[in-house]
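Appendix B. Chain record.
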Amino acid sequence: MRYVIMADGKGSRWNNYMGLDKHEIRIGGETLLRRTVRLLHGLDDAAEVIITSHNPALDTEGALRFEPANNVLEIDRFTAELVRDDMCFLYGDVFYEEETLRTVTEHRGSRPLLFFGNDSSICAVLIGSAEVFMAAFNAVRARAASGELPQSKGWQLYHQYTGMPLEGKAIGGHFIRVGSSTRDFNSPEDYRAFADEN
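Structure tokens predicted for this chain:
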């Protein structure tokens, strides 16, 4: 299966904390990207792993780095030119529990779209149907480009797909909750809280 790890964000909340891009954070001696790539290859012998980034420093063994053609809106992190049936979008600034990635791979082919996360964040989008994904993506992107939506990220895609209001972080169907140790690092506070717990 194709796994696209999104690592082309601006990192404004991270603000080059510790002199690092947040994707270069090391946990147990590995960067977040290297850990995710390693786990994916361990769980899926046929894994095709792509990291989307314009930063050559994020080249990672076991993955191809791809420079997206479009990175204007936040939703553009979901690199449209890489979308196909039977794939998954993951986030480059997330520490994934192995069990979370196993859950994602085990649900392959179960639905046209399936989202994984918790009450505060989405950490994976599993795509069974590229057509269904692109319909939701294009609808959200058009509304964001027109200024109708102040944000255009995973939550808006999820809500568009499920027919929920696009604001907030409400959870309904087509969503699998993952363990609390899977978490993202958007800010230095996120990293310090993780370090304190581990």
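Further analysis of this model is presented in Appendix C.
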